[in-house]
Amino acid sequence: MHEMSIAHSLIEIVKEEMIKNDVRMLKAVRVHIGQMSAIVPESLSFCFEVMTSGTELEGTRLSMEIIPLEGVCTDCERAFEIQDFVFLCPQCGSRNIQTIAGRDLSIVEMEVES
Amino acid sequence: MKISVVKNILEANDRIAQQNRAFFDEKNLMVINLMSSPGAGKTSLLEKTIHGVKDVMRVGVIEGDVQSTRDAERIAKSGVPVAQINTGGACHLDGNMIRETFESFNFDDLDLLVVENVGNLVCPAEFKVGEDFKAMILSVTEGDDKPCKYPLMFRESKLLFINKIDLLPYVDCSVQSIREEALNINPALIFFEISCKTGEGLDAWYRWLKETVDAGKSS
Q1: What CATH code is carried by the domain that includes residue A52?
Q2: Could you tell me the mean pLDDT of each successive run of 10 residues in chain A, 114 residues long?
Q3: Is B5 contained in some domain?
Q4: How do residues B82-98 score in pLDDT, each as one tens digit?
Q5: Is the minimum CB–CB distance between B66 and chain A shorter than 8 Å?
Q6: CB count in 10 Å sphere of residue A12
Q7: Domain total for chain B?
Q8: How far apart are the C-alpha atoms of A49 and A53, rounded to whole Å?
Q9: B1 contact A CB<8A
């Protein structure tokens, strides 16, 4: 439901970066969405389309990559993919797990006309 | 041509939240971001808490709702300073909305500020407002499957209030199951089983709150 404000922030960053890199036409924006972020990709895509229509960003493709949730055990240092949101080390059974991926909500790349 | 831009989409909000936090720290104020679904008992818990700790700390409240000033009116009856934010549709509070309430308070006269977020189990978990920590309420009428369905909020919270335990005989909800599943997501979670209706379990919460606010003051 908060995808509208996320889309707004995303567009603000994109516009800033376009000025910074002297870009006029944008083909695509690539974003990473962590599995544990509270984002529905379809909804973000819809909001992005609505908010860019009629602007210089109209037609820009939003490509989203879902980043799986990964943790590292702070006791035995085993890194692993967290299944079903159970933060439990498969090697030593410790519950001291630090999230290392899957909380992302970031823009990673812009594709521009060359 | 591809241009690499690695930027957190929420960085603008994170930055404002950090500024809020620095401001609150300067005022020696503890700030709790209180979240739950609508009707879980956020305002009731606040009313009880304000009354329960009134002799030992000074509390202020920011009320977040999509519409209406009903919650602020309820809290104002408790005699504490309160500001109402109407998000006008937005499903969560953000750092900027909190900053805009600053002029409603004299923070030097407060020990604790509670931000009652918009009722919603999803979105508020994603937005920092400048809090010391997040706390959430799950009422037993909502069911024990909520930790698995809404993991982010359980992961982000420091406290979990299991509210309406007086209704346990009438609903199919296992507190043990809530505890087990919530601990899978967040092993450090601190639980309070409470009923805002009967007052059961609230004394333990008041004690914890006082100790935590005192510890914050002396650090």
Answers
A1: 3.30.2320.80
A2: 90 94 93 93 95 94 97 97 95 96 95 84
A3: no
A4: 999 999 888 999 999 99
A5: no
A6: 12
A7: 1
A8: 6
A9: yes
